[in-house]
Write a structure and sequence with these properties.
The structure is a single chain. The chain is of the alpha+beta class. Helix content is about 40%, strand content about 30%. Strand 2 and strand 3 form a beta hairpin.
Length: about 100
């Protein structure tokens, strides 16, 4: 399955309701799994981003649908990166004309 790295920043709404954040995270993990995804790691971070997750999804459409649904809740803004393994990267580079 493709791998995605997501970067999250709290919105004003999200930080005002910070005490509910652990339950929101748990609910979103369950939703991700129902969509066929697998969470590989989730971290609360210091610095520019408040959370980082690494996950797999069946395809880009599922990943995009999920991230749009998370954003629509209004608690975080997201940036999603599609990640490639070193083997996948080697194939990409090999195909450069």
């Amino acid at each position: 399955m493709p791998t995605y790295i997501a970067l999250y920043k709290f919105t004003d709404q999200g930080i005002k309701n910070i005490k509910a954040a652990p339950q929101r995270v748990e609910n979103n993990v369950k939703a991700w799994e129902k969509m066929g995804g697998k969470l590989l790691g989730f971290y609360s971070t210091m610095g520019e981003y408040d959370y980082v997750s690494i996950a797999e999804a069946p395809n880009d459409a599922v990943a995009s649908t999920f991230m749009l649904a998370v954003g629509a809740q209004g608690n975080v803004r997201t940036t999603t990166l599609k990640a490639f393994t070193t083997k996948e990267f080697a194939v990409i580079v090999k195909n450069i004309p």
